[in-house]
Specification:
- The complex is a heterodimer of chains A (112) and B (117).
- Helices cover 0% and strands 54% of the residues of chain A.
- Chain A is mostly beta strands.
- Chain A is globular and about 45 Å long.
- Chain B is mainly β and 117 residues long.
- Chain B has no helices and eleven strands.
- Chain B has strands at residues 5-7, 10-13, 19-24, 31-37, 44-50, 53-57, 65-68, 75-79, 88-95, 107-108, 112-116.
- In chain B, the strands form two sheets. In chain B, strands 2, 4, 5, 6, 9, 10 and 11 form a seven-stranded mixed β-sheet that branches. Chain B has a four-stranded antiparallel β-sheet with strand order 1-3-8-7, with no helix packed on it.
- The mean pLDDT of chain B is 92.
- Classes of the chains: A mainly beta (112), B mainly beta (117).
- Chains A and B meet through strand 4, strand 5, strand 9 and strand 10 of A and strand 4, strand 5, strand 9 and strand 10 of B.
């Protein structure tokens, strides 16, 4: 079953604009990760944020985590056409279970 | 690239046939995971290994599915008597687990796309 729900399901923006994607999850988590997937390809790890962290940055990426609302957001600044992909959040519940539970993803299109 | 490789990248088979996929993880990684992804969905966990031991299996892993990691390095996923519903992308991931450490990042391979006719 899917733990997370990304919002929006699809997002289309112009190159240079910022893109914000949101993820909500249902149960308590140990960590939350964001992955990118180009069409028909494997997943590329972007960033991991632990449950005791509130914000994390990596290059043009900014991730926030609000455990009280069970939600996270991924911000991509100054988007590029190469950012066109699907973005997934994935959670693990800890407690000895290391499987990742993914949402359905947000499909981002960056128009040159 | 992440360093996880999968073979084959694409497989077309007829219903009822058996198929086997291979995953080679990043060399120093002791954990290996299998996921399945259908169109428009996120990946769903199937099973994982720590070294050669299979530690967790999802309810999605019916008795037609079997996974092995005999020497704690590469892994195979076999599907017997394939059904059209098995058509999906099968993804492998690996990670380095250190006892007592925090959750590690899982690195994914390119996937094997299976089409059952």
């Amino acid at each position: 079953s899917q733990q997370g729900e990304e919002d929006p399901q699809a997002l289309s923006i112009q190159e240079g604009e910022n893109a914000t994607m949101n993820c909500s999850y249902k149960t308590s988590i140990n960590n939350l990760q964001w992955y990118r997937q180009n069409s028909g390809r494997g997943l590329v790890h972007l960033i991991l944020i632990r449950s005791n962290e509130r914000e994390k940055h990596s290059g043009r990426l900014r991730v926030t985590l609000d455990t009280s609302k069970k939600s996270s957001s991924l911000l991509i600044t100054a988007s590029r056409a190469a950012d066109t992909a699907s973005y997934f959040c994935a959670t693990d519940s800890g407690a000895g279970s290391y499987q990742l539970t993914f949402g359905k993803g947000t499909k981002l299109s960056v128009i040159p | 690239d992440t360093g996880v490789s999968q073979d084959p990248r694409h497989k077309i088979t007829k219903r009822g046939q058996n198929v086997t996929f291979r995953c080679d993880p990043i060399s120093e990684h002791n954990r290996l995971y299998w996921y399945r992804q259908t169109l428009g969905q996120g990946p769903e966990f199937l099973t994982y290994f720590q070294n050669e031991a299979q530690l967790e299996k999802s309810r999605l892993l019916s008795d037609r599915f079997s996974a092995e990691r005999p020497k704690g390095s590469f892994s195979t996923l076999e599907i017997q008597r394939t059904e059209q519903g098995d058509s999906a992308m099968y993804l492998c991931a690996s990670s380095l687990y250190i006892a007592g450490g925090l959750q590690e990042t899982q690195y994914f391979g390119p996937g094997t796309r299976l089409l059952v006719l």
